[in-house]
Amino acid sequence: MLQNKPSKKGGRPAKSLAEKRKYRLSLKLNTNEYLQLKSKSKIAGKNRCDFLRELIYSSEIKQRFTTEQNEIFRQITGMANNLNQLVRLAHIQGVWYVESTAKSFELQASMNPNIKKPVWHISLNFPEKDKDKLTNEQMTQIAETYMKRMNIKSTQYLIVRHHDRKHPHIHLCINRINNDGKLISDKNEKYRSAKICREITEKYGLYIAPGKENVNRERLIGYDKTKYEIYDALKQAIPKSKTWKDLEKQLKKDGTTFQFKMNGKTDKIQEIIFEKDGIKINGSKVDRECSFSKIDSEIKDNAFRALQQVEQQAQQANSAINAVEALSSLIAQLNIFTAPNSPHYDATLAEYIQALKARKWAAKNKIRIHRVR
Which helix or strand (DSSP H or E) is residue 81 part of? Predict the structure, then answer.
C-alpha cells in the first residue's frame, strides 16, 4: 500500500519556474567598469550580483535613435547649417536666438553621444597689414574655403569676427558630428591646417610674415614667452657680433646666457643651449636659424665682412699708422678662427687673416723706413 511521505517542516518555500534563476551570463568588464561596479554596489550595500539584478528593473537606458528619428533631426538641424549668417540676427532677436543655436548644436551632437568633445574651435588670424582690405564677406569666403580644404562639410558651423585685437581674426565653431551623425576627423589637424593656411594666404594675396614676426608676444607666458624673448634678442645681437664673445656680451644685456654642448668626448660643438630666467632651451628649438651651425656661419660672415672693410680703409689710407693699428686690433680679436684645434676654426678665415698679417707687417716696415728717412 502506497503511503505519502510527510513534507519537511520549515525551510524555504519552493520557487516557481518563473522565479528560478536558471540562466547564467558571462559578463566581461574592463578595469574602470569593474571598479565602478565594485564601488557603487558597496555604496548601495548590496553584493555585485544583486546590484546588477536591480539595475535591470530600476535603470533607464537611452535607446539608439531610429532611422525615422535621425531623419527628423537632419531636417531640424539642416535649417541651421548656415549659422554664420543667422547669428548676425542675434543682436536683433536677443539672447533666446543664441541659446536656440546652442541647443541645435547639442541636438545634432546627441546623434553620436560617445564623442566627449563634439565641438571644434578654430581661430584664423590675419596680419595687421591686411586689416584694411579684409571685408566681412572676404573673411567668410576664406573661412569656407578653409573648411572645405579641411574636409569639414555637411555640418553646423559658426563664423564670428572679433575686433578685440589689433590684427583681424575670425573664430570658427564647428559641430564635429555631421548631419548624418558621423564624426568629422581631426587627425593631423595642426599639420593639415598649417599647410592649408599657407596655401590660402598665397591664393588671396595676403601678407606672409617671415618666421616668428607675426606672433603676438603679449599673450605668451612661461616657456613660450622665454623662447621668443631669446629669439628676439638673438635677432638683434647676431648682426652686431664678429665673434662668440661679442654675441655673449650682447645677449648679457638682455639677461640671456649660453653654453655649448660638445659631441661626446670630442672638441666638436654639437649644439648651443640658451638660458634665461632659469629656463634652458636648445638653439634649434628657439628657431631653425638659431642652431649652433647657423649662428656660427653668420658670425664668421660678419667677421669676414669686417676684415674686408678694415682692409679697404687701410688701402685708402695708404698704410697710415691708425689704419694698420685698426687692422692689427681686429686680427687679434679674430685669432680664434685661425687655431686648427679650436672648435670655431674656419679654413677660409684663417687663410685670409694670415694674408692680412703679412700685409700688415709689410705696411709696418714701410712706415719704419719712412721714419728713418
Answer: none
Those residues whose C-beta lies under 8 Å from the C-beta of residue 306, and which sit 6 or more positions away, are 242, 330
CB within 8 Å of 147: residues ≥ 6 apart: 153, 157, 172, 174
pLDDT tens, residue by residue, 210-225: 656 666 667 677 888 8
CB 356 within 8 A of CB 307: yes
Residue 139 CB partners (closer than 8 Å, separation 6+): 124, 126, 159, 161, 168, 170
Contacts with 52 (C-beta within 8 Å, 6 or more apart), sequence order: 27, 37
Helices (H) and strands (E) in the chain, counts: 14, 6
How far apart are alpha carbons 207 and 209 in whole angstroms? 6
Q: What is the C-alpha end-to-end distance of the chain, expressed in Å?
A: 164
95 or 24: which carries more pLDDT confidence? 24
What are the CA-CA distances from residue 2 to residues 119, 229, 265 (Å)? 80, 106, 105
Sheet containing 157-162: give its strands across.
Answer: 119-125, 169-175, 157-162
- pTM score of the predicted model: 0.45
